[in-house]
Amino acid sequence: MPFGKLPAAKPRAFVPETADLGDWPQIAPLFDELKARAAQAKSAAELERWLLDWSELNAALDEESSRRYIAMTCHTDNAEAEKAFLHLVEHVEPQVKPRQFELEQLYVAHPLRAELLKAAAPAAKRKAVAPSRRKPAAKSRYEVFDRNVKNHVELYRAENVALETEEAKLCQQYQKLIGAQTVNFRGGEKTLVQMGRYLEEPDRALRQEAWEVVAQRRLQDADKCEEIFEALIQLRTRIARNAGFENYRDYAFRQKGRFDYTPADCVKFHGAIESEIMPAVRQIQAERREQLKLEKLRPWDLAVDPQNRPPLKPFAEVDEMVARAQKIFDRVDGELATGFRQLRELKLLDLENRKGKAPGGYQSTLAEARVPFIFMNAVGVQRDVETILHESGHAFHAQATRREDLHAYREAPIEFCEVASMSMELLGNEFIEEFYAPAEANRARKTHLEGIIGFFPWMAVVDAFQHWIYTHAGHTRQERQAAYLELMDRFGGDVDWTGWEQMRANSWHRQLHIFIHPFYYVECGIAQLGALEVWANSRRNRTKALKDYKKALALGGSRPLPELFHAAGCSFEFAAGTIKPLIELAGSELKKL
Ligand SMILES: [Zn+2]
Is the pTM of this model over 0.85? Predict the structure, then answer.
């Protein structure tokens, strides 16, 4: 583990300092005590104290889990670290879960709950304002916490537990199926992930060959994918009906705590993407086609650099990446720059790719110390620069909520968490010359902006397809395919799939979210809109945009989504009117690059 003992954000008031939070016999009495004390609370203040003690226990358990996860992913070859993590997953978490649920039920049924809800949220510090401009009514401090816990308790059905286990098994079957897909190519067995790099080859014949081998391999498993998916639809529909919902879409919206937007808002979002973003996508595709001097873009022409340039090389050593990222943050905002410096000083970064390290990148928060940690596998490509900016945005979010005492409020919903991180990609890119000569900096910005624009239509396909699936009970496989192809016509752009129609019709099989994380995807689109708005605001008034951004981050998860967005200077509307000016800005920016 890169970091050692960290300064506590606050001394513990409830959990003993010596408690081993990886040992259930030492944890159980704390749940017993909380259970007993719930009944003894005689005032709203006592109930609040109880909530804060419960929150302290949650933070301590959360940090224990994060520490073990970090230790394991930083050292995959350390058997002790793996054992310690698995012990938590297998022997502690299954015990904790029902006890948490029990406390949630006690909270929801508590006679003093209504009294507690009268407690006002702390007013933002501001200068005295004229009475007429004051906000009408004080907002409840516990409104968001309360609605989340109540929702969780209300949705619970004992009969769904077994169905969810079955669902998890099917998801695992899907992952196993996809994970086992390999091809023989150029004299060796390769995974489909490894094959991805051939799509960046300037040699078109090679790209096509590689793409076709992969497509053929995927098509071999098409029927199995459909079978697994059909079993999943059935299970999910039963889960939803058990919980009293007409269909799984409506259940999923509630289960994800989507109180602030509806399925209809998402449908409106899809339409706005079609009318406002698709023209820009088609234009980017046309430009690519011209640069590649092709008559038609084929599916294997989408990942290669359109000017056949070698990949960007932003840095050689990870220390260099960190120092340059620091310089970017120094230019973005002094306070955020101090935050990044703190990550370096406390050794809360493990960034270089090395043997014995898990793949990928993530930001994790040590919930009790209230400090972030960033993990990645930097190898010196542009993607690493995007990742360090992105994960730093998450880290700034965690740092901003440090003074919040309720553990649940130190984390925001995903729709806003990704605003924090995606905004930082855009804000940081303004100073990406810290890594590149001017022409290369523009190339990096162009790739980034085109990636953002290109993400929206695929997001719309993935989301709209699932809306259709779960609201058309009893549909046939053919009907499902027709619905998908209709979406591909709307959002696929000008790509010629001639000869590979079957692959086009099944191209959703590789999108793991559809199988494993149903309805999770639109969040990223919502967040990306917010990030574009933060960026647009910064173009008009950088100081104010940064101030609003930090203010919104500091709210953590304490307010509903629209308030978080508004605090950040964003609109929280997925309509054509919101999207149009943002795409115009991105478009005019692209013209300059
Ligand atoms: Zn993220």
Answer: yes
